[in-house]
Design a protein that fits this description.
The complex is a heterodimer. Helices cover 59% and strands 0% of the residues of chain A. Chain A has nine helices and no strands. Chain A has helices spanning 8-12, 15-26, 29-45, 56-78, 113-116, 120-131, 135-145, 151-158, 162-185. Chain A starts with 7 loop residues before the first helix and ends in a 10-residue tail after the last helix. Chain B has one domain (7-58). Helix content of chain B is 73%, strand content 0%. Chain B has four helices and no strands. The chains are: A mainly alpha, B mainly alpha. The interface between A and B is large, with 50 and 40 residues.
């Protein structure tokens, strides 16, 4: 019984988390609020179909992902994404490499992944790093990694070329890697117990 | 297509590999480089971790824990 949805109020306790999730991808407060509202309405209507096998939050986020994709599709039709020039260039990562193309500083080990992924504080750090990504970069990256869409579909939806897409995802991964390195892996001693 | 990649080129191909964008020769060149390069092997593991973390985002469900204690 514990996972039954007893009241709209219970769903509403998830609203702040859902809103943060939607904001990261839509980067637009009213669009994010719309997507969350649609999610909660759909959840209420479909409460009977909730199997109780996953947590309520996991179920809600599953619905929210679809609502976000709907919003992204609509908005990219109305206003195609225009990546800023520096979102499709990798020059600012040049300093990570020596002139011969080798790592200037070797990438470090990140400890035990299973342990890290059990810590909610890690995900708070990840969320802060995601928030720092430029809008278009974050959008392409999250469509790929959170929504799990195929590359071809993302290029089509966002109306960007394949080569720009690859650069944007490379940029996203390089930025996140540096950000996590700085804000989690170097700062948090407990996560480095394996080194 | 050249086979002796440097780390900078390798890092880009490793990212591209996550999006299913590599030709057979590129995959081969990657494998050769990774066998010889600890830095890029480490980087490759970081990318795999990043993917896992994004799939797991938003992370452990604190509400579920509360639900469970409520019984």
């Amino acid at each position: 019984m514990r996972n039954n949805i007893s009241a709209p109020l219970e769903l509403d306790t998830h609203r702040p988390q859902l809103l943060r999730f939607a904001m990261l991808q839509l980067r637009d407060e009213s669009a994010a609020e719309d997507a969350v509202q649609e999610t909660l309405v759909a959840a209420l209507q479909g409460a009977a179909s909730f199997s109780g096998q996953s947590s309520v939050r996991t179920w809600l986020i599953g619905i929210l992902k679809h609502k976000i994709i709907d919003h992204l599709r609509r908005s990219s039709r109305e206003k195609p994404l225009a990546p800023a020039p520096d979102e499709t260039d990798t020059a600012d990562f040049d300093s990570l490499f020596a002139t011969d193309g080798h790592w200037a500083e070797q990438p470090a080990g990140w400890g035990n992944p299973d342990q890290t992924l059990q810590q909610s504080r890690f995900f708070e750090a990840l969320e802060r790093c995601l928030r720092d990504l430029p809008k278009s970069t974050a959008r392409a990256f999250m469509m790929r990694e959170v929504m799990g869409l195929e590359s071809g579909e993302i290029c089509k939806e966002l109306q960007i070329s394949t080569s720009n897409y690859w650069v944007m995802l490379y940029r996203a991964r390089m930025s996140l890697r540096l950000c996590l390195e700085q804000n989690w892996f170097q700062g948090d001693a407990s996560s480095r117990s394996q080194t | 297509m050249k086979f002796n990649l440097n780390c900078k080129e390798t890092s880009r191909l490793l990212s591209q590999a996550q999006d299913g964008g590599l030709a057979f020769t590129e995959r081969l060149a990657l494998r050769i480089h990774l066998r010889l390069c600890d830095g890029c092997t480490q980087f490759s593991q970081q990318l795999d971790f990043l993917r896992r973390a994004m799939r797991a985002y938003p992370g452990p469900d604190s509400n579920a824990e509360k639900d469970n204690t409520r019984g």
